[in-house]
Each structure stands twice: as C-alpha cells, then as structure tokens.
Design brief:
The complex is a heterodimer of chains A (324) and B (321). Chain A is built from 12 helices and no strands. With 324 residues, chain A is mostly helical. Chain A has one domain (89-320): MetI-like (MetI-like fold, Orthogonal Bundle). In chain A, helix 1 (2-29) crosses helix 4 (63-75), helix 9 packs across helix 10 and helix 10 (232-270) packs antiparallel against helix 12. Chain B has one domain: P-loop containing nucleotide triphosphate hydrolases (Rossmann fold, 3-Layer(aba) Sandwich), CATH 3.40.50. Chain B is an alpha/beta fold. Chain B is built from 12 helices and 11 strands. The chains are: A mainly alpha (324), B alpha/beta (321).
Amino acid sequence: MGSFLARRIFYGALLMLGVVVLNFFLIRLAPGDPAVVIAGEMGGATEEVLEAIRIDYGLDKPLPVQLGIYLGNVLRGDLGESFFFNQPVVDLIGQRIGPTILLVVAAQVLSIVVGIFLGVLAARKPNGAMSAFVSVFATIGYAVPVFWTGIMLIILFASVLPVFPVEGMSSVKLREAAWYIKVLDVLHHLVLPAVTLAVIYLAQYARLSRASMLEVLGADYIRTARAKGAKERTVLFRHALRNAALPILTVAGLQFGNLISGALLVETVFNWPGMGRLAFDSILRRDYPTIMGVLFFASAMVVVANILTDLSYRLADPRLRGRA
Amino acid sequence: MSLLEIDALKVTFQTRHGAVTALDGVSLTLNAQETLCVVGESGCGKSITALSTMGLIPMPPGRIVGGAIRLNSEDLTKASEARMRALRGAEIAMIFQEPMTSLNPVFTVGDQIAEAILLHQDVTRDAAWNAAVALLDRVGIPSAAERAKAYPHELSGGMRQRVMIAMAVSCRPKVLIADEPTTALDVTVQAQIFDLLNEIQRDFGAAILMITHDMGAVSEMADRVAVMYAGRVIEEGLADDVLDHPRHPYTRGLIGCIPSLDHAGALKEIPGVVPPLHLLGEGCSFAERCDFARQTCRARQPVLRGAAHRVACFGAQEGWA
C-alpha cells in the first residue's frame, strides 16, 4: 500500500509538472503582448515604458529561460503577482481555495450519498414508481445547465420561499457571533450552491447506481446472503452496495474535474467567494498570472482527487490490493 | 413424521408464454439424518424445488400456487418473510452450485461465516469469528486461522466450496440443501467434497437434500433417490433399489448414461431434450422421448404408484415397459 501511494504521488507530481509547462505555453500563445496589458490597454504607454516592463518581468529573455525561471518560482511556491490586485497569486488563491473546496466537496458528498440512495431504492423494484422517478429525474438533472438550476433556485428562495440565503458565504450581521453560529451560517449559505452543483452529478450517480445495483443483485453471492437469513436491508446495503460502488467510485473520480469547472459557474451565480469566481473575474481582466495560478490549483485538486479515488478503490475491492 | 415434507407442491412462473408450471405436484419427504438425492436433467425442476424450500424463489415471476412445504409440521409456504429469515441459515441451509461466485468478493471468508452465526445466535463478534475459524478447520481447510482472513479470490474452487459448507452448517441446520455442490469442481475434488458432506452429516446430524444430475454422486451419497422430469417426480425409492432396478424408462436412460471402464462401446443417450414447459400436453411428459410409449401414455398423465419403490409410468406399473 505504501509503495503504491508513493508511486501515485510521484505520477501526480509529474502530471502537475506537465500542467505547469502546458499552462506556461498556453498563456504565451494567447494573442497580445503581456507588457501592453500590464501597462494598461489604453495604448498610452511609450516603447521605453513597455521595454522597461519587459525587462522588469523577465519577458525579454528567451522562452526556455523564462520557462526555467517560472518553474523555479513555482517550485518555491511563487506563482507570480496578479496584474489587477498587485498581490501574490498564491495569497489571492489562498483566501479563496477554502470556500471552493468546501463547495466542491459538499456537492460531491451530497450527490454521491443521495444519488446512491436513490439508485438503491430504484434497483429494489426495477419496475416500480421510484425507479421511474429516478430515470426521469436523471434525464432532466443531466440535461439542465447548472447556471439555470442556480437561477431558478435563486428565484424560488429569494422571493417565494425565503428560507435559504441566495448570495455570498456569510451574513454580515453575524460578524460578532460565536464561532459555531458562524459555522452554521456558512452551512446555511452553502445549501443552495451545493445543491445546484450536485444536481447534475446526483442524477448521474442515481442512474449509475441503479444499473450497477441491478446487476449485482442478480449475483450468486446475493442469493447466498439471503440463504443465510440476512435482512433485505443488510443484503442491499452491506452485500450488494459494496460491490456496486466500484463503478460509481470510478465515475466520481473522473467527474471531480467537471465538478470544479461547474463550481466556477455556481460561484459566479451565487457570488460565492471561491476560486471559480476569481478565475471568472481574472479572465475578464486578462489577469494572466492569476488565471495560471487558478489552473494550477484546480489541476492539483483533480490530481489529488484521482489519487484518493484509486486509494478508495483498493479499500473497496480486496481483489485490487497487492497489485500495482 | 418426516422432518421435511414437500406435499403436492405446484409452482408457476410468469413468462412470455404465460404462466408456466415449473413444478406440478411435487411430493418429497426427507427424514431426519438421511440423504435424499433429487436427480434429473437441466430444467426438470430440481433447483426450483430447492429454492422453494428455502423461500428464495423470485416472486414475481415465480408463484407457489398449490401444495405445502412442511418443516417439522410448520408450513413454510404460509410463513411470514421474517419467519423464513429466522429459519434460513438456522434450520435449513443451502450450498450452491457455483463456489466461484457464491461468496461475496469484498468480504473475508471468516467474516462471511461469522455473519451467518451472528444472524442466528446471540454471541459476540469474537466468539462468532472463533467459531468460524473452528468450522473452517472442521471442513478441512489447513491453517484455518490464517485462511479465515483470506478473500474468496485467494482460494481455489474446492476451498471455496468447503467455505460454503462451513457457512451452511455453522448454525447446525436440521436440513442441508446441496444444489449440485460438485458440478463446478474437478473430479478428485468432487470425491473429497462428497466425503466431507458424509462426515458433516454424521457429526452434525443434518438431513441432506442433494440435487444432482450425476448418478455417480447418487451412489456416493444417497439413502433414497427421487427422479424428476419436467416438473414432476417420476420415480422414487431407496437408492440401491432405484440404481439397481430402475423402473421408469427415463431413469434407465439416466443410468445408461454413466460411463464405465469395463463396458466398452458408445455411451447410451436419451434421445431428445426435456420439452419446453409451456408445450407440455395431456399425457406423460416423457412420452415423446420414450421407446415404449403407447396410446395411453399420450392420453393421460401417469401418477406415482407403489409401496417403497414408486414409479409414475403405465408401462412399469403394468409390466410392459
């Protein structure tokens, strides 16, 4: 297990290196001169000013040298300075990555738990009403764009049924409250963004676990469990689900990247102070170092999520242990 | 009073062709501590009989439409699901045909045996685990304490079937149903499993209802034999009587299919296949494949007749077949 983890982390680091290099060239491919952007796009900067900026930012050096400097900086934890905020990108992201992780993890957990639960209920009676509901819900949930779900929820909860806050992450009026009140306040704010982000994936997991459970429930060892005298609930959740969970885990791991890009939209719709919101604003402002930083951290989250998926896969299925 | 009495059991399955009668008035008795072998070709209703007794027929599409299954005089066809759960694994246990797929791949074999014990006995987890190890040792698994921590994929087919047997006898059931327990195994392993089942029966005092299509298994195991064909019992009696003096042409055909070393030449076979259940007519269901069939055979259904050795065949009953 230890060597497996070490190897996965090594591959993850290699992958991150690839991401950094790719990001670097991607930004260099973008049209326009960074010096012009930095100096201000009004076009008022003289050639001397631009030249000074280029020297200042190391843009006068050949590309491979620039890449080397950039990689060295990244390794030291320096992702450059935002053109817009004039602050280190690492600080900007540091302030915002917490809310994003909170949102993404909450949505992931919500979609997996509720999705699997619905799927199991549906699989129990494949021709029943629950099964039909899951199929219809899955199709709709998958088809509806996340920003539309968000806007509909805002309309519903801003005017018709004002029980959840529809904007931001915390209430200003609770600034002086005790810590646990603040935690509850954040969770209260989390409900709508997390639900919005979860709906698509929840629908997918429900459908997937329904299919996976149906297959597993026909297996011989399920009959063995029943022959022992196990309760139906034990048969479903202990004997069947552990086996049916494997394909769900795979998809959940793969979906994590999509979840992060979905978070970008959801954060924008709900004004959630996360990385997605920062990325969105930075793209509009052509704040290249910040965009690169956001990409770097988003990639790192996906890499970490994939390592965790592989680990949980091995925990769930003993047949995979002891293999590379 | 027999331990287990299956009395005129009738089971139907809903299919594309409408309701098909899978079991048509099957009657069997199993006395305490004896071994009854139920033999017949695929699709004759052997496994449905076993699963009905366990209360494990998928309903729908299956349905018990008539008859009774009495365990110690209690009719299982009328028992609640909770009652059946209490009986399953405790009073009646089952060993399945496919040891490769009958164990859950994500739990250790020790866990799976301990679970059966915990479901029916008021013991601690540790006690159940220790009992599981003792059972593994009893069914002949070397270094049982270690193997209890193994996952099914780490064991051979023969070992897995031993684990299934350990699990089935873990609560000392009175009735042990074995559905072709050796079909998926090597011949040498088959003999070991038969020996083990015989030992287990002696030590644990269980009655065994064994389902098989292997006449060799019958001669190894059976006190009595019931031969099934197309959802009916067509011949029944003491194993020696039936094996040495088969009366139904179908039973004679089955016995003729056993290869033997001193009998050179081609093996005999029974022409044709078991007819599809939805196409069964009025008469004897074997008539189409029978060398002796007469007009009566196609017109009426013969019933089981006789004292100790009973047969459902007009020819055998009247002495012309």
